[in-house]
């Protein structure tokens, strides 16, 4: 899991790295966000992200692509002011954030029913801090053709794994989405995604990440609705 193009409650100064990044390196320069792709399949992920943003731009908000420098594994996006969804959950806004998370996903799937974001959830959404409207869906580098339950299940996984205190608000996610798929389907999608990330870590030879995703996969197996 990785999210890299986040704003903060206080916008970073030019050149300052953004918080919440895991997979790549991102920093702000004035009204732009620069993102350099690192690690396994960096160029392929860059191309997927650019193509996906261009495909969904008329359906859900996403940062505009200003420039692409494939030789440098770099994309420049327009800066979008807002607060990151996970921070808002930690500030006690779990229910409205998750409701908007579900609603935005439903809007995406209405026009793109087979497009899975691949790392969907509040960790990759920026919100207008007062109305809590989604102003940007970030980090499309793992987008692919998949099942509709994948992104919904991963949004729930983010809450269960990183915000256990907010699990009481997970009903709001399904309220916003307009549907609650059966738990076995959601759990199976969570486990599949964990196993994919475990395999990526093994191929990359990142032992710390391998151990982490083994632990998270086992934890996800043990969850009950």
Number of helices: 7
Helix vs. strand class? alpha+beta
Q: How many E-type strands?
A: 9
Indicate the mean pLDDT.
Answer: 92
Radius of gyration over alpha carbons? 17 Å
Give your account of this protein's structure.
With 225 residues, this protein is of the alpha+beta class. 44% of the residues lie in helices and 15% in strands. The chain is built from seven helices and nine strands; from the N terminus they run E-E-H-E-E-E-H-H-E-E-E-E-H-H-H-H. It has helices spanning 42-56, 85-90, 94-111, 149-162, 170-177, 183-204, 207-221; strands at 25-29, 32-36, 65-69, 74-78, 83-84, 115-116, 125-127, 134-137, 144-145. It has a four-stranded antiparallel β-sheet with strand order 1-2-4-3, with helices on one face. Helix 3 runs parallel beside helix 5 (170-177), helix 4 runs antiparallel to helix 5 and helix 6 (183-204) packs antiparallel against helix 7. The longest helix is centred in the last third of the chain and has 22 residues, at 183-204. The chain is globular, with a radius of gyration of 17 Å.
Produce the secondary structure layout.
Elements: E1 25-29, E2 32-36, H1 42-56, E3 65-69, E4 74-78, E5 83-84, H2 85-90, H3 94-111, E6 115-116, E7 125-127, E8 134-137, E9 144-145, H4 149-162, H5 170-177, H6 183-204, H7 207-221
Helix pairs in contact: 3-5, 4-5, 4-6, 6-7
Give a brief outline of the structure.
This protein has 225 residues and is α+β, with helices and mostly antiparallel strands.
């Amino acid at each position: 899991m990785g999210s890299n193009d986040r704003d903060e409650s206080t916008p970073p100064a030019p050149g300052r790295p953004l918080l919440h990044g895991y997979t790549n390196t991102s920093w702000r320069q004035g009204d732009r966000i620069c993102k350099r792709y690192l690690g396994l399949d960096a160029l392929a992920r860059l191309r997927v992200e650019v193509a996906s943003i261009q495909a969904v731009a008329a359906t859900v908000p996403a940062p505009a692509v200003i420039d692409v420098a494939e030789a440098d594994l770099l994309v420049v996006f327009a800066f979008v002011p807002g607060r990151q969804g996970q921070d808002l959950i930690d500030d006690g806004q779990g229910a409205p954030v998750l409701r908007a998370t579900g609603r935005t996903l439903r809007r995406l799937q209405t026009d793109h029913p087979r497009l899975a974001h691949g790392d969907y959830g509040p960790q990759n959404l920026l919100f207008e801090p007062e109305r809590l409207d989604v102003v940007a869906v970030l980090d499309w580098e793992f987008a692919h053709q998949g099942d509709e339950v994948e992104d919904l299940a991963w949004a729930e996984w983010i809450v269960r794994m990183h915000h256990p205190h907010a699990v009481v608000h997970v009903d709001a996610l399904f309220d916003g989405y307009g549907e609650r798929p059966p738990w076995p389907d959601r759990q199976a999608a969570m486990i599949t995604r964990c196993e994919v990330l475990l395999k990526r870590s093994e191929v990359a030879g990142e032992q710390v990440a391998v151990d982490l995703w083994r632990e998270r996969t086992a934890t996800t197996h043990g969850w009950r609705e």
